[in-house]
Amino acid sequence: MRSLRIAAIALACAGIIAGSSLANASPRCEQIDATIYDKVVDVGCPPPTQVCVVGTVRGKHGFNATDVFILGSRSEPPSTAPGYRPVSGTITYTFKDGSTLTALETSIGNVDTTTGTGHAGGTQEFTGGTGRYQGATGYTYLNQHWEVDQFVTEIQGEVCGTKD
Predict the structure, then answer these.
(1) What angle do CA 28, 20, 135 make, to 5 degrees?
(2) 124 to 20, 32, 48, 91, 164: CA distances (angstroms)
(3) Which of 37, 41, 139, 160 is deepest in the core (most CB within 10 A)?
(4) For residues 126 and 156, what is the distance between their CA atoms, to the nearest angstrom?
(5) Please, what are the domains in the chain?
(6) What's the pLDDT tens digit per position in 8-37?
(7) DSSP code at position 14
(8) Are 92 and 100 in contact (CB under 8 A)?
(9) What separation in angstroms does the CA of 130 have from each of 31, 54, 95, 108, 157?
(10) What is the largest CA-CA distance in the chain?
(11) Residue 7: which region, alpha, beta or left (left: phi > 0; alpha: psi -120 to 50)?
(12) CA dihedral in degrees (20, 26, 28, 30; nearest 10)?
């Protein structure tokens, strides 16, 4: 009976140690559910960029920031979807505490800013940041459309490796 009790205690201790090791092994992740409101501008862009997209982000769990998107490339439409263009670039979020979060954003869409029609979909892959987002990874899925004079983009995903 005593050896059974010792075995049970040893098993329980092993479970606690393994559980705490697993908890420490996986990075801390936070869910992102936010809306970005952006405009194309030709002033205030990071040099040497002459035109960029800037705006604000409002989200759940304190994911509130300003953002800047810098176009990296835009390709010709695929032959099977002639009205859609792939776009890729870097988006940087800057938070009130000065922390930044940077992502590679890639999407394809048919947004027409002159008619206000169309939509786009894509992803953001977090590549790092500063402050509480130093070394952060993660992703968001995005869907975008044009309203009156701005892009409206819904993002959902997660950012991992954040610091308190």
Answers:
(1) 25
(2) 31, 12, 23, 8, 23
(3) 139
(4) 13
(5) 28-160 (2.40.160)
(6) 444 444 444 444 433 444 468 999 999 999
(7) H
(8) yes
(9) 19, 19, 10, 28, 19
(10) 81
(11) alpha
(12) -120
Convert 2-39 to b/e letters by CB count within 10 Å (16 or more is b). Answer: eeeeeeeeeeeeeeeeeeeeeeeeeeeebebebebebe
Amino acid, res. 80: T
**Bridge partners, residue 95, by sequence:** 65
Locate 2 and state its tokens.
């005593």
Tokens of 85: 């263009």
Q: What is the pLDDT of residues 101-133, one digit of tens each?
A: 999 999 999 999 889 899 999 999 999 999 999
